[in-house]
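@channel sequence for tomorrow's demo:
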Amino acid sequence: MVQTIDLKSKVPKKTSAADKLLEAAGPLFSDRPFDVVSTREIADAAQVNLSAISYHFGSKEGLYEAIFERIISDLAPVRDGLTAFVDVSLPLAKNDVPKQRQVISTLIHNLIDAITDDNHPRWRMRLMFQEVQRQGPCFDLVLEKHIHVMHDLVGSLVALIIEKETSSEDVKFLTQAVLGLCLQHGLNEALVMKRLNWEKIGPAELEIIKQSTTGHILALLGISNPLKA
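structure tokens (generated this afternoon):
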């Protein structure tokens, strides 16, 4: 039985004009370039007055940055929950390969649960991915407040397992690969379903994804369970 880590936000959903603008503008920006999305379109989608954008955010650029601030804030329980788990697990997993497998399995299962959680709409992941790919105006914000935190967190575990410094290139590349294997299921959900001939990704399909991804990552880190080979 894999340990479940509490990664869910306890903050109630807000419905102010500012919140409506954030939730309406995000999907629009994730589907089309920033310059193509008009403030009128955003206001109409949010069902608020056009003036609400300048009132709450100053400009469309201010709204765009606020969306990333909101996403990063909403992901705080994921970062905090996984950080607490890894901090406790690292000393216990040192020089203990079975424990390392258990920790990796727990981390991957819970991370994929968070990635596929309906409380984190897919447009948010698409928008963050696009911002990083094109190094947009919020690139540094996403990098400093979320990506570096997640990479350093997973990297500390990778470094322990392969017995190298967290600053080494091998640790950084492996950490990138581990997180990439997990993130692909949220970014490429339609492709995964098509390739596997799935009509949906329900609990059974999600369990297959978690088990398969965990197996690949354990092999990547050189700690596969020989009894399951």
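heads up for whoever presents: The chain has two domains: 17-71, 75-228.
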